[in-house]
């Protein structure tokens, strides 16, 4: 009964906005990872280059260059995982301080909603951030696995094991990148979800803007044109 009472504090428009927010997050993830064959996303194009990277690595006697690149990728996942942890800690601290939470609500809106409404909204945001944290941690671990497999690739490109192990390293690298990208999308939508603190309509607008940004970067950006060779000014 208490749960029903809490749900009743939200309006039908809140439910619509929440559904659009979550649905957009799931939908854009599916579209980016499974795009039309004739119009691949940046993420799919980069997966192809990651496979090519591992093939080229087989022909290099010195692989310090490759290890440096992988180290840079792992540092990126570490940074975002740490940032996600800080956000989660700050959000939980805010939820634990009801007076400060109500003060924040008064600064953002004229609504006199009870503290539980703000707590639930912040919890929804933190769920996205928590998902991002888990994706970044798993990505970091997979990049570590990739480093081990790369070290196991024979220096002799003619070795029958070279191509197979390079393909394994490429698959681990691509899987790690996919987890990292999923974490980034979760952070994008968590940032957009901040608009829910202002109301349902701002959340709907923020979700639309987030979708536009992601669609443009994955399917209509200058970086994508560069990847497919369309580098004209």
Explain this structure to me?
This protein has one domain. The radius of gyration is 22 Å and the shape is elongated. The chain has 233 residues and is mainly alpha-helical. Helix content is 80%, strand content 0%. It starts with a helix and ends in a 6-residue tail after the last helix.
Give a summary of the structure in a few sentences.
This protein has 233 residues and is an all-alpha fold. It has helices spanning 2-7, 12-33, 42-58, 64-96, 98-108, 115-152, 160-193, 200-219, 222-227. Helix 6 runs antiparallel to helix 7.
- Quote the beta fraction: under 5%
**Mean pLDDT across all residues, rounded?**
87
Tally of separate helices = 9
Structural class: mainly alpha
Globally, the shape reads: elongated
Bin the helical content.
over 70%
Instruction: Domain count, please report it.
Output: 1
- Radius of gyration, CA atoms, in whole angstroms: 22 Å
Span between termini: 62 Å
Low-confidence stretches: none
| Number of strand segments | 0
The biggest sheet amounts to: none
Q: Give the SSE order as H and E letters.
A: HHHHHHHHH
